[in-house]
């Protein structure tokens, strides 16, 4: 097996907890320079995948190679080559921004002579230079995430693992954070990021949709959206909540999701639409308009997990 060209390669990687499968035979290859997004709801197995690939936790079976090293046999080598920002990334709230970065520089044994330039660059790209003397505990949520990222990058890793890095962060800070990630990508870093936000997944070069410990589909966002294979329609209705329940029970309907006063309906075949509209009207629901749409990643995900 050629493990040199892949940044990350997993083969039937499996983790069970007390007989319950958290990660089910993950087989995956991520090339250098990819921005891979692992997407799925809470409990899908994203954190477990991260912990196995970062050699923090041992698999029950299977193996994976990160930067060419086996997670089973060479965990310490892997840790030198990667940056990992976990959900509860350890920032010291009673230390300043600068002191936190220095703490991680010490932890990773970054040579003293290389520090000033690296720290300046990290503070610069994360826009934290004006705040370097501020206590980490006094930073906003978005700034804390950026500081976490700066700390995870202090030893110039080749591969960066980010576990739901923008969870609970406001939309503007999320956008800033992604801008930083694109900058890192341009520098040649491979990024493996997990998220529960499907709109964020659209920003990745490749996405794996995860559900109950399995990756259901893994491809570029555009190809995933093109792969649905079912016609998708958007309906403007009155009482969208009731309309959702009614539409879900109609023949030929694969899945339904609600967006404000609109429904996205995946159909087994286009003809089923007439039946859905007829049924809604019969139940007293006003159907203001309808049109064919391209599915979003969320639509595809829902259609896949609701598969009969
Ligand atoms: N240490 C553990 N002991 C027992 N069960 C665990 C452990 N860690 C995870 N699990 C279980 O494994 C499954 C996958 O959890 P995991 O944390 O990997 O999901 P996730 O997609 O990262 O979700 P979240 O965002 O909530 O962390 C869940 O059913 C969870 O309860």
From TrEMBL:
The keyword Nucleotide-binding applies. It comes from the Bacteria. Gene3D superfamilies: P-loop containing nucleotide triphosphate hydrolases (3.40.50.300). Transmembrane segments: none annotated. SMART domains: AAA. Residues 8-237 form the ABC transporter domain. This is ABC transporter ATP-binding protein.
């Amino acid at each position: 097996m050629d493990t040199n060209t892949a940044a990350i390669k997993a083969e039937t990687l499996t983790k069970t907890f007390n007989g319950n499968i958290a990660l089910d035979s993950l087989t995956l290859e991520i090339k250098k320079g990819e921005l891979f997004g692992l997407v799925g709801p809470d409990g899908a197995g994203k954190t477990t995948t991260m912990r196995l690939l970062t050699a923090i936790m041992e698999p029950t079976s299977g193996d994976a190679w990160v930067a060419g090293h086996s997670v089973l046999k060479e965990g310490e080598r892997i840790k030198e080559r990667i940056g990992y920002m976990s959900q509860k990334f350890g920032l010291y709230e009673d230390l300043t921004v600068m002191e936190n970065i220095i703490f991680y520089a010490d932890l990773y044994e970054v040579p003293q002579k290389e520090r000033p330039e690296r720290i300046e660059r990290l503070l610069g790209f994360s826009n934290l230079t004006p705040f370097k003397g501020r206590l980490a505990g006094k930073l906003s949520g978005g700034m804390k995430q950026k500081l976490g990222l700066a700390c995870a990058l202090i030893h110039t890793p080749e591969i960066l693992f980010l576990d739901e890095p923008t969870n609970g962060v406001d939309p503007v800070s999320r956008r800033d954070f992604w801008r930083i990630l694109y900058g890192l990508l341009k520098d040649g870093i491979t990024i493996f990021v997990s998220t529960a936000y499907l709109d964020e997944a659209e920003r990745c070069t490749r996405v794996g949709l995860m559900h109950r410990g399995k990756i259901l589909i893994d491809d570029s966002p555009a190809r995933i959206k093109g792969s649905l294979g079912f016609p998708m329609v958007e309906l403007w209705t009155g009482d969208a909540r009731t309309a959702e329940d009614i539409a879900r029970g109609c023949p030929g309907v694969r899945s339904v999701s609600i967006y404000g006063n609109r429904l996205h309906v995946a159909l087994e075949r286009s003809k089923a639409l007439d039946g859905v509209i007829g049924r809604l009207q019969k139940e007293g629901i006003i159907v203001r308009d309808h049109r064919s749409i391209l599915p979003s990643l969320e639509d595809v995900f829902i259609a896949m997990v609701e598969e009969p």
